[in-house]
Amino acid sequence: MDSAVDWSVADLGDQTGRTFVVTGSSSGLGAEITRHLAARGGRVIMAVRDTAKGERVRDRLRAADPGADLDVRHLDLLDLRTVRRFADDLRADGVVVDSLVNNGGIGTVPHRLSPEGVESQLATNHLGHYALTGLLLDRMAEGGAVVTVASGLYRMGRLDLDDLAAERRYSPGGAYAASKLANVLFGLELDRRLRAAGSPVRSLVAHPGMARTGLSREAALLPRAVQSALGFFFRLPIGAAVAPILYAATEPAALTGRHIGPGRPRRPRPTFETFTGAAADTALAARLWDRSRLLTGVDPAQPLETGEPLPDDA
Q1: Greatest Cα pair distance in the chain
Q2: Class of domain 3-297
Q3: Would residue 176 show up in a list of annotated catalytic residues for this protein?
Q4: pTM, whole model, 2 decimals?
Q5: CB-based burial of residue 181 (10 Å sphere; 0-12 exposed, 13-18 middle, 19+ buried)?
Q6: Is 46 helix (H, G, I), strand (E, B) or coil?
Q7: pLDDT tens for residues 237-290?
Q8: In Å, how far are 5, 11, 18, 62, 253 from 59, measured between CA atoms?
Q9: How far apart are CA 84 and CA 87, in angstroms?
Q10: Do residues 293 and 118 make contact, with C-beta atoms less than 8 angstroms apart?
Q11: Domain residue limits, the chain
């Protein structure tokens, strides 16, 4: 049964002394998440593909809040080389991460493959974040949180682990839904493995509902007329859409193993939703983990098992 907590962005507490990594922070949800965390005193490392755009967003936020502690760094989730460089740079700088917000991604794009031969939406939205999480797990603070931003469209996702290139059949919306299912499966599998290892780091999965910044992506599988109707009645203002993600990233009371969303559109508040369908397939989650490990050369379980930092050339 779903349950909700009476919490809004206005309840976000003081984040002074805490460091957040937010992927995709140069636009949309990521920029709004960044704005709120910095306004509460948090240091935000803005992990962005386009650093010039990221710097413009940083400068705009600082103009409104001169004390904002913002650090723009390059990260292209489709290119695992940049993921490694990003993680290496944080390690070299001695950065300890309190919350990693895996928010960035692409949606409903033409068919394209990553250098590893994986369909680009799955490669960007899932594999890039899988690798980033694995490479930063030993840099997480005690009690830190990994927040994977998913979508209710995971219910419509079909994940074929024997065709990660989507060569047999491809549709932009279907590939996006598959990537969101992969996000959910990864977030839940990471939670299981963290708990089994007795780690103080938590893995949470959150979603923004149908936000005003992402209607075309979130409704990609629906007819245009239905998209318009849903947008009129159910689209959330961005402040309400980021609330579940901010709650997951900052509140120790946030529940793992649930989909933390905005709940009812007319009275949005962080709501702990039960996962259904393929999200509950633990065998599929384990298989996805193994395929991701082989494709990226990164194993997030390694720091849990050895206590050693991940090697640079795993």
Answers
A1: 53
A2: alpha beta
A3: yes
A4: 0.91
A5: buried
A6: strand
A7: 888 899 999 999 999 999 999 999 998 777 789 999 999 999 999 999 999 999
A8: 34, 26, 21, 5, 33
A9: 5
A10: no
A11: 3-297
